[in-house]
Amino acid sequence: MLTREKTEQILRTADLMYSFETIEATMQRLADEITDKLSTQCPLVLCVMKGSIVFAGHLLPKLTFPLNFDYVQVSRYHNKISGGEIDWLMFPQDELKDQVVLVIDDILDEGITLAEIRKKVLDCGARSFYSAVLIDKDTGKVKSFQADFVGLTLPDRYVFGFGMDIHGAWRNLPAIYALPSEPGK
Ligand SMILES: O=P(O)(O)OC[C@H]1O[C@H](OP(=O)(O)OP(=O)(O)O)[C@H](O)[C@@H]1O
Ligand SMILES: Nc1nc2[nH]cnc2c(=O)[nH]1
């Protein structure tokens, strides 16, 4: 875990990428798009913990149609800034058969996490699979996964805030920040 001093220093040297106001406006647009597509289908909404907790908390009250809610918990970054193997910590497999599933995740980076979740959800008998991400990172590479609903895009920098962590910290920030760009990137 980072010390308090190091945690504060990270924020001081970070760049603000999106303010709370921009994120809130984006949330309404996403909710409208999801409503257009899914409002008659009583979807099962799955929040991908931990990073999506803030996204889910803001988006769900804007989805004013019948739905069910549960969560998946996976970790691929393990509080580090590059990804590895996926750890499956919670997966509600008994609930998925015949469901229209909407997975909501904070960030689509390499796309590995959501591709694996989609495979598992469909393998468990879901009728259809949709995904909504707050951030789609422009990695400059072809991804194995495209989201149905995308909030905002960001360049290929490690970001934190609004649910996303930096070494486990700063998920509580109301805006999205990026670590300083690496020279040459
Ligand atoms: O597209 P990918 O490159 O696979 O990365 C995206 C995933 O990375 C983060 O999760 P993380 O593993 O950091 O767990 P966390 O949600 O607990 O922070 C984020 O919440 C996404 O689920
Ligand atoms: N917090 C955070 N998690 C991620 N998972 C994949 N990319 C990122 C990122 O830029 N920030």
Automatic annotation (TrEMBL):
What would be an example GO MF term here? magnesium ion binding
- Give the UniProt record's GO annotations in the biological process aspect: GMP salvage; guanine salvage; hypoxanthine metabolic process; IMP salvage
Q: Which UniProt keywords apply?
A: Glycosyltransferase, Transferase
Q: Per its UniProt entry, which superkingdom is the organism in? A: Bacteria
Q: Which CDD domains match?
A: PRTases_typeI (cd06223)
**Cellular component GO terms, alphabetical:** cytosol
Q: Which InterPro entries match?
A: HGPRT (IPR050408), PRTase-like (IPR029057), PRTase_dom (IPR000836)
The record's catalysed reaction(s) read: IMP + diphosphate = hypoxanthine + 5-phospho-alpha-D-ribose 1-diphosphate; GMP + diphosphate = guanine + 5-phospho-alpha-D-ribose 1-diphosphate
Q: Which residues form the Phosphoribosyltransferase domain?
A: 23-165
**PANTHER family, A to Z:** HYPOXANTHINE PHOSPHORIBOSYLTRANSFERASE (PTHR43340:SF1), HYPOXANTHINE-GUANINE PHOSPHORIBOSYLTRANSFERASE (PTHR43340)
Protein name in UniProt = Hypoxanthine phosphoribosyltransferase
What is the originating organism of this protein?
Nitrosomonas aestuarii
